[in-house]
Design goal:
The protein folds into two domains: 155 residues, Peroxidase, domain 1; 125 residues, Peroxidase, domain 2, CATH 1.10.420. It is 47% helix and 2% strand. It contains 13 helices and two strands, in the order H-H-H-H-H-H-H-H-E-H-E-H-H-H-H. Strands 1-2 form a two-stranded antiparallel sheet. The longest helix is centred in the N-terminal third of the chain and has 24 residues. This is Peroxidase. Keywords: Calcium, Disulfide bond, Glycoprotein, Heme, Hydrogen peroxide, Iron, Metal-binding, Oxidoreductase, Peroxidase, Secreted, Signal.
Length: 331
């Protein structure tokens, strides 16, 4: 009898443990700051609204910070940490160096939040909220941002070098990197749609303009008149740091034109155009759906942003709430 009681209590504790593990994954909540910092979302939005007045690119830059953060050890604001005695900054990783931007706006948001609710809102949540505001302020969808992430105590520069998808990679590699963080093909296509606004430096796509894959010719999937335009922006002997619009049709508006551009062989990055031009790829039908139905794109994008924001957050008593997003508390 006693062994069966022990047995059932063991089963019960296993069920409880399983429940706790799942619960810890689901600790993020849209109402996390409802009592402690009820204006958090509107504070973030108003700082970004202000920043957009002088820098129309800032929305795209901010959403990219959230993306590059979440792909490296989860959405924990590790990308925001500067170099220190103990930290090799992710800002110096190849996908980020001389490329990621908007850190000053993140600092402005954090300062405004600290003035209103000191010690409450994490830098990781700042990035998640900033991504939503950036999209909705430039014509895209709104969504209910899940909150309650905490900030990492360290960074992972090597992880940033290996885990963040590259514009030069093939579709199968990129799909694998998404899969590694629990995101599927629909998430991949939807989130790539963030390239409906923002800019990219010539060095990230000039390989397509002159000598693609060592052929001595341009990428055959690049529309010829678009090629001419891009060669003017990015001369072969240029610095590589000139920028081109990711979406040549509506460069500063969040819409579904990105997908129509792909159908017209006007994707800027190799990683963009591959979604439509890789023979037999499961991404093609999704591009076609989003091109013809902006509502479907917006709904998928919002859900995929929530999915991405759920990658391995620190919750409960893990990590900390940084006072300054650039450094660990007490450093």
């Amino acid at each position: 009898m006693s062994s069966s009681i022990a047995n059932s209590s063991f089963i019960l504790s296993t069920i409880l443990l399983t429940f706790l593990v799942y619960q810890s994954k689901a600790q993020l909540s849209a109402t996390f700051y409802a009592t402690t910092c009820p204006n958090a979302s509107s504070i973030v939005r108003s700082v970004i609204q202000q920043a957009l007045q002088s820098d129309i690119r800032i929305g795209a830059s901010l959403i990219r910070l959230h993306f590059h953060d979440c792909f490296v050890d989860g959405c924990d604001a590790s990308i925001l940490l500067d170099n220190s005695a103990n930290i090799q900054s992710e800002k110096d990783a190849a996908p980020n160096t001389n490329s990621t931007r908007g850190f000053n706006v993140v600092d402005n948001i954090k300062t405004a939040l600290e003035n209103s609710c000191p010690g409450i809102v994490s830098c990781a949540d700042v990035l998640a909220l900033a991504a939503e505001s950036s999209v909705s302020l430039q014509g895209g969808p709104s969504w209910s941002v899940l909150l309650g992430r905490r900030d990492s105590l360290t960074a992972n520069q090597a992880g940033a070098n290996s885990s963040i998808p590259s514009p030069f990679e093939g579709l199968s590699n990129i799909t694998s990197k998404f899969s590694a963080v629990g995101l599927n093909t629909n998430d991949l296509v939807a989130l790539s749609g963030a390239h409906t606004f923002g800019r990219a430096q010539c060095r990230l796509f000039s390989n397509r303009l002159y000598n693609f894959s060592g052929t001595g010719n341009p990428d055959p999937t690049l529309d010829s008149s678009y090629l001419t335009t891009l060669r003017q922006i990015c001369p072969q002997s240029g610095s590589g740091f000139n920028v081109a619009n990711l979406d040549p049709t509506t460069p500063d508006t969040f819409d579904s034109n990105y997908f129509t551009n792909l159908q017209n062989n006007q994707g800027l990055l190799q990683s963009d155009q591959e979604l439509f031009s890789t023979a037999g790829a499961p991404t093609i039908s999704i591009v076609n759906t989003f091109s013809g139905n902006q509502t479907a794109f917006f709904q998928s994008f919002a859900q995929s942003m929530i999915n991405m924001g759920n990658i391995s957050p620190l919750t409960g008593s893990s990590g900390e709430i940084r006072a300054d997003c650039k450094k660990v508390n007490g450093s």
